[in-house]
Amino acid sequence: MMRCFFLVTFFTFSSAMLFAQEEEESERDTLELPTPTGDLIPLDSVPITLITLPSDLEYIPADDTPELLADRLACLQQIIPLTYNNAVHGFINYFTVRNREYTRSMQRKQDLFFPMFEKILAQYNLPDELKYLSIIESALNPRAVSRARAVGLWQFMSGTGRYMGLHSDWYVDERMDPEKSTDAACRYLAQLHSIFGDWELALAAYNSGPGTVRKAIRRSGYKKSFWEIYPHLPRETRAYVPQFIAMNYAMNYAEKHNLLETAREELPLSDTLAIKQFVHFESLASLTGTCLEDLQKLNPSVQRNVLPDNGKVHIMKIPIHAKETLNLNKVSILDSVSRVGKKEAEVLAKKYSGGSTEGREMISHKVRSGDVLGSIAMRYHVRVTDIKKWNNLRSDRIHSGQRLAIWVVPSGAIASAKTSPASQQTLLSPNTKTYTVQTGDTLWNISKRIPGLTVEKIKALNNLKGNSLKPGQKLIIS
To answer: What's the 3-state SS for the chain?
Structure first.
């Protein structure tokens, strides 16, 4: 009998080389939260009010004084300064009063990743409190993809990810690998700290790039601290460090605000499997009595439910009970899962990855004011690196009025491709009535893969009000 482990998701990111990533980093964005406005004001002038939430929610009095909040942060502080001021106060209010469910959901998810974060941070002798940075970056979602195409728990852009040794192709994106991306984030943060010698400036540089921070330092008259250069930083970066400080506070003082959450999300107990052949996840799940969803959650970097036969050894995670079943008939099972959908996946990978124009149609995009390569890539469901390759761009600089050649997948290309039913199994499960959203999917191209399915029907079946999708999201399709 197939056994499934259900995980409930409650909420849904050398010095010269570092500076070369500046334009790309400026495109990345993090968790969208309201930014307190206005200049920094003295601690004793921070207004304290009572907030009444709607009657069907908790009544939460914001009665902690500025002095008490500042004292709590001082007690919490270890290596990274946890400054208290009105900017930080605004985000403490957000995490403890205005969006309490978000803070609770982060407590429920923390055991999925915090033990691993703590271990790798310790290996690099980095401050333990940096583990809270991933909450600001990605809400602890290893498959998070921002509008600027920053990816994973630590929200690496493609160029920075490559620089830090994270491989990405049509099959696998290591920016979504929790362990590898955390190791890369630790190395990157350590490099930034070595450049600036200050953790708050290093955090600002992680958000907007070291070049942006250097520019703010120059404009401030060569001030030395984050709060001194604060007015000269981009709006998002001004909010980034206060969010980090406030999340440190909210996670550590949740009980003081009646926010303590005892429930915890868990992953199935797993073991590793070293594999050097093509693996079709759905077939592996079926033959070992586990769930496709469990394999996906244990291996978030695998983008299309298949591992390629590319001569490399891939380390995948598999539920323990499935590993035990596999060991009983390993040769036969691995032979079976290496055959299903292989040819079709290789055809699709060749056609739709690596900058190839085969099977695509060229359109001309006129750059408008405010356009960046990241937003253009997201609009046309292509990669920044491909746009640069197609247009012989050496940097990410583009200007208004410029014409860019964009090679897009033609309407219905995947649906009309001459592939066998097995090819659809790399994306769809014929034995279920749900579909797992992949990176780059839209409601329109999903509807074209399934006869009789329309965008309107998908939205009606899933009670969707808009057209936005997130990788890993489950959609009812019939």
So the answer is: CCCCCCCCCCCCCCHHHHHHCHHHHCCCCCCCCCCCCCCCCCHHHCCCCCECCCCCCCCECCCCCHHHHHHHHHHHCCCCCCCCCHHHHHHHHHHHHHCHHHHHHHHHHHHHHHHHHHHHHHHCCCCHHHHHHHHHHHCCCCCCECCCCCECCCCECHHHHHHCCCCECCCEEHHHCHHHHHHHHHHHHHHHHHHHCCHHHHHHHHHHCHHHHHHHHHHCCCCCCHHHHHHHCCHHHHHHHHHHHHHHHHHHCHHHHCCCCCCCCCCCCEEEEEECCCEEHHHHHHHHCCCHHHHHHHCCCECCCEECCCCCCEEEEEEHHHHHHHHHCHHHHHHHHCCCCHHHHHHHHHHHCCCCCCCCEEEEEECCCCCCHHHHHHHHCCCHHHHHHHCCCCCCCCCCCCEEEEEECCCCHHHHCCCCHHHHHCCCCCCCCEEECCCCCCHHHHHHHCCCCCHHHHHHHHCCCCCCCCCCCEEECC
pLDDT at residue 51, rounded to an integer: 38
Domain range for residue 449?
Answer: 433-476
Q: Looking at the predicted structure, is the pLDDT value of residue 241 above 70?
A: yes
Q: Is 354 among the domain residues? A: no
Please indicate, yes or no, if residue 264 is contained in any of the structural domains. no
Domain boundary among 232, 257, 282: 257
- How many domains, the chain? 4
Same domain, 229 and 375: no
34 lies in some domain: yes
Is the pLDDT at 417 greater than 70, yes or no? no
Of the listed ranges 16-25, 171-180, 386-395, the least confidently predicted one is: 16-25
- Predicted local confidence at residue 359, as pLDDT: 60
pLDDT above 70: percentage of residues in the chain: 78
Residues 81 and 184 in one domain: yes
Residues 253 and 276 both lie in one domain? no
Is the domain of 401 the same as that of 467?
no
How would residue 47 be classed by pLDDT, with cut points 50, 70 and 90? very low
Let me know if residue 352 belongs to a domain.
no
Alpha carbons 290 and 317: distance in angstroms, whole number: 12
pLDDT band at residue 5, thresholds of 50, 70 and 90?
Answer: very low
Residue 236 CA from chain centroid, whole number: 17
- In which band, very low, low, confident or very high, does the pLDDT at 18 lie, cut at 50, 70 and 90? low
